[in-house]
User: Fold this.
Amino acid sequence: MNDFSAEAMGLVIRERRQAQNPSVTQDELAKRADYGKGGAVSISRIEGGLISPGEHRLAAIALALQLTPAQLKQEAEDRTTSLARQRGQRPVKLRDQVAETKRRHAEINEKAAERSKITQEYGEAFNRVHDVVRDEFFMRFVELAESISGAPEPERLREEEAESTEEAPAAIRIEAMSAGIANAIRGAATGGAAGVAVGGAAAYGAFTAAALFGTASTGAAISTLSGVAATNAALALLGGGTLAAGGAGMAGGILLLTGMVAAPAAALAAAGFYILRQRRNKKEEERLRTEVEAAEAALDQSQQGFDAMIDVLDRATATMEYVEVHGTHALEKWRAGLPPEPRDWESLGHEGQERYKEFLTVAGCFLATSLINVPALLTATPDDLRDLDKAIDETLRYADRTIKSTV
Assistant:
């Protein structure tokens, strides 16, 4: 994981931006680094030490500042060491120590509040587009697919094929989601529990539960469809209560997430009385300073998980927005060309059958993206976070590329 703090990276980026000849604004840097609408806000948050850019964003920023990613990281690491050295120097007088502790206490509360605000902003943006895609693409496809009898089970990757590519875990996850959806559709078409009305969180939650926990026609659990040893561990990264709020998407528990990111500040609530006192003795000051330092450490330790969460929400939202625009249009075009009911598989013709398979894959990508366990990023240990981040990155990249090559 990174050996630099978000604060240090932000300071380096700001100084490098201002040192450009001529100096560039945050908005100009955002455009050069390929940020979308509102990119200046992201640059401001990075420079303020609230978030640290993910690998692909960091590389784009470095290029915009005429640096290599390695150079930018090294400068941030050096600044991290310098900041730590400065903070090791304590004021001598008790009055100055009290003032410093108050300042640090205020910074912690402000940073935690900003984290909660950022989390809510990104979570609500994801949920908005997720719910549109859920109703306008996913459930509409399910409704159409239920009207087609005789659709075959999706073809599965052979074990040797899956293990021959670095993308095997992501491919397996998407394959498992698509197979689960297909089996739930078949169950619904024959009067099973998955037959629900189109639209709405309740319908989506009921259907995805059937898709996730259903079984293949062979009787094998969906989680073991591929037969590859890595599948169970890979699928364990999905779910984890992300649909607990009635199918609201991976950020469904926004209140939960905002509470988690603000936890270090909440831990200082009991210390607030002493912080506000105009005078306190040396013993009280030492106790408060210890608590403030512990809260600072907690914020620092959770920074990488927070950064990973924001990066995941941002990328997942962009993928969902693509499906919202292109996927729904392609689905409507396919629907208009379907033969009248009752429909069977053969009546679709080759082109219609291929489109069905493609939409099933897109639906699997949507479901796999929606079920990423975002809260786990905030609570993972550094080693676990590295594995989580890698698996999630693979899923997001594979899903995004697959969707864009399909619709």
Remarks:
- The CA atoms of residues 162 and 168 lie 5 Å apart.
- The chain is about 70% helix and 0% strand.
